[in-house]
Amino acid sequence: MSDSTSQNLSGCNQARVLVVENEDEYRQLYGILLRHWGYEPVIVEGEGQILLDNAVAMSRDMRCQLALVDMRLLDNSDPNDVSGLELVPKLKPTQSIVVSGFGDHRKAIMSIKQMGAVSFVGKEDGAESLQDELDQAALRFCASRRKLEIIPGHVGKQVNQSLFPGVASPAEDEPAELLARLFPEANRISVERLDDPDRQMVSRAPRPRSMILITHADDFQPVVVKLARAHKVKKEVERYREHIEDRLTGSFSPPLKAWETLWAVGGMVYPFIGATTVENFTRYYASATASDIEHSLEIFFKRTWSGLYAARAQNQKRGIFEAYCDVWDRDWFDTRLAAFEPIVPASEMPAQWRHLHVPDPVAWLKTRIQNKASLPKTALAVTHGDLHGDNMLVDDNRNIWVIDFERSGPGPILQDFVELEADIICRLAGLADEDFASFYSLCRVAAQPEGLGDPAKPTAGNNPELLKAVQVIAALRRLAKEVTGEEDTQQYLWGLLFNALFRATLLDPKTQKRSLQRALMMASILCHRLEHWNEPWPPENWPNL
To answer: pTM for the full model?
Structure first.
C-alpha cells in the first residue's frame, strides 16, 4: 500500500456468509464451497421457527455481510412456502441471495423487488452460477472482498471508541463495511476527522456519540461523512426528510447524498456545494475575528434558516420547560437532573465565587418547575435542535452549513440562538480554566440586558477573548430579535439556564470537571438574575473583577 499507516480494516477476516438451509446435506455442502471460495461460512442450525429465529440472531451477532437463504425453510413439499423470502428483510443489513430448487421467474422477481434480496439462484444452476452471484454481491457489499483501502487504518478503532465508549463495541470491521456501502465504487478512501480533539484548542461538545469526517473516495471531490450509532442515523434521516430537505434558503444546506445503517453503526454523506474546503465552527471561532464570525452568523440566520423561523406555529404557545423537554426528552430532568449531586463542592470553587451567595441551580430549578405558572411561554418553530460548534461547518467563503439533524423539528423559537450562545460561553470562548474573573464577567454580562438585543457592556480591563465573546453574543441576540421577532430576554435566559444544566448532566465529572464547573457557575448566575429580575443588575455587593 502507498501509506504505511493504511491497512485493510477487516484485517485477515474473510467475508462472512450466513447459510440458512433446512437440509443438513446442503448446509455441509455450502460450508465446503464457501471455504473453498474464500468466504467464512456461518451455518445456522435448527428446524422450523427455531431455524428462522436463529438465522436472525446469528446474522446480527456475527455481523454477516451476505447470506444464502433457501426459499422453503418450513416445508419443502408446500408450494406456498416462501418462508425464506419472508426472512430476507428480517436479516437486513445482511444482503441475501435466495437459493431454491423450486424457483420460477415470478419467485425470482418477488425475492429481489419485493423482499430486497440481491439475487436469486436456482439449485439446478450449479455451483459456478452461485459463486458468480456471490462474488458480485461481495464486491458491492464487502470491504475485505473488494480489498478496499482506508486511510488511516486505525479509523475503525476510533469510530468504535468514540461511538461506544465503555460498552461492547461492534465488530472490528463494521466501520469499514459501512464505508464500503456508502462508497460502493471506491477502491481507496481517505478520511480526516473534522472534530479531532487533538486539533482543537477546546474539548468536544457534550454528546460526542458521533464523528464528522472529510472523506475522499478515489480522486473525487471530498464530501462530509457523519458516523453515529445506527438507530441515531435512522432517526436523523427521518427528521431531515420531514423538516429540512428542500426547506432551507440559499445554497448552503448540504443535501443528503447517501446514507446507510449496519447493525450498530450508521453513516450519512453530505457533498460540498460551491465550496472547496470546510472546517467546523469550533475551529473557525478560535481563529476568526468577531466581525468575521458575526458576518457568518448573519448569513446563516437571516438567509439559510430564516424561512423556518418565519413559518412559526401561528398563535401556538407552549410552556418553555415542556417545549425544551419535547426536544431533549424529559428524561434529562426526571432522571439525570433528579439524580444530580453537587459534584463540584463549594470548597473547590474559586474564593471569589463563595462571596456571591448564588443559589444551587439544580435545587432552584426543581423548586421552580413545581410552580410552572411562573415560567414563561414560548413560540414554536422548526429549529436545528442541537446547534453547537461541532455541528456547524464553515466553508472557504465564510458561509455556515449545518449537519446533525437528529433533534430538528418543532422547538422553542429561540433555541438555536440560545444553544450556540451557551456553547460559546461554556466552551468556545476558550477562557482559561483558572481565569475565574473573565468567565465570571462573561456570565454577568450575558445576564445583564433587559431587552433582547440590548447592548451589554463588559467591565474595563477584560481580556481579548472575553471582548470577542461579548461581541459575538451581542450579534447572536440581535439576530434572534430580528429573525424571530421575539423581544423577551427572560425567555432567552430561561433557555440558557436549561442548556447549562442539560450540558452539566452530560459531562463526566472525572474527565470534564472544569467544564462541569463552568456550566454550574453560569447556571447559578442565571438563577440569581431570574430570581431578582426587577432589581438592579449586577447586585451591588458583587465584585467587579
So the answer is: 0.88
